[in-house]
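Show me any protein, keeping tokens residue-aligned.
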Amino acid sequence: MFELLQRGFQVERQKPLPLVYRGRTLDCGYRIDLLVENEVIVEVKAVERLEAVHGAQVLSYLRLSGCKVGLVINFNVKWLIRQGVKRVVNGFPE
């Protein structure tokens, strides 16, 4: 993240994401780990392996925020690029 900041990217950590249910708003229903340039959601994990629920979590964040692209990054892998990064999209064909 430090490099993103050095390059001038706007990065917000632990960004609250309100949840609206039946007309009622919960100000902090969820928290986005990292929001880059108000466009890309990054969810950081350190789990044995990424599961479908992790992708579903980011897809929910994308739908609620209106963003189109998200990344799930799992740091508990031997090869980060090959095994630890999953792209999630909202409204684009895979």
